[in-house]
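thread from #wetlab-drylab

HS: before we spend reagent money on co-crystallization trials with manganese (II) ion, can we at least see a predicted complex? here's what I'd submit
DV: go for it
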Amino acid sequence: MTFKIAYSAEAEAARAANTPIVALESTIITHGMPYPQNVETARRVEAVIRENGATPATIAVMNGILHIGLSDAELESLGQATDVAKVSRADIAACLASGGIGATTVAATMIAANLAGISVFATGGIGGVHRGAENSFDISADLHEFTHTPVTVVAAGAKAILDIPKTLEVLETLGVPVIAYGQDDFPAFWSRSSGLPAPLRMDDAASIARAQLMRSAMGLPGGQLVANPIPETAEISRDVMIPVVEQALSEAAAQGVAAKSVTPFLLQRIFELTEGRSLVSNIELVLNNARLAAAIAVEMKLQSRG
Ligand code: PSU
Ligand code: MN
């Protein structure tokens, strides 16, 4: 059994020339942001990656084909569609096998990127240990993916909808390198600091690239999480976000939202409750992560050639 991969023209050209590529996920487009800001952001993120010397490759399953890089028309139709499945490690094979359409989460995007030989991936926030996980057992498959798949993921840390201390504990247990970029603290998505120290700190893209290459050279499977703080000008204070997050969480509990619906439900309610302010910050931090991811991808190519 084989599966079909379709590369976009620019991703195909970058592969042929062995130039840096940055993977991008599609769940952030279909389940993480409303239309049309989702498509506008996806385009801006791709442009930022090109401006910083790498080629973007947004990943999704369409008609049972694993797409590495989407055309502008494909991006638009994915962004408008309302019936797209959210696919993670558990469902990506079933989606390909059934000829379906699926947006890839962080975990599934890491898997696809690795299949395509891409080692760097930019997103907004990763999944983690949900608050109340001691009862719900809700721990994102994103965390375990870092133990299998050698991809460096640049995110702005974890959202306050998650239990950040438990998320860091699980990452440590799994042996995942968690690297804060340019500061000591682990960032918390809308805030530059979670109040908790990150296990590792690196101040430049070259060091991050070297650490991933060393991990692979040692035969250690898996990737690393780079936690890049949101730009100061886009930060939203914790005082503003705490009541919003609390309300979204209590509505989710009251409505019995479970499993893969939890994260999209919370993101949507937070967008509504902040009257779009959370989205403005979300867009800025994704662009910031794209810049850093491109720099890491450039370094990784330089160092692996050298
Ligand atoms: N966090 C965000 N924005 C997102 C997601 C998480 O701030 O769009 C998406 C990502 O695709 C992530 C997924 O991989 O949600 C995690 O979902 P779950 O918690 O169901 O594993
Ligand atoms: Mn979950």
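DV: The mean pLDDT is 96.
HS: ok that's useful, forwarding to the group
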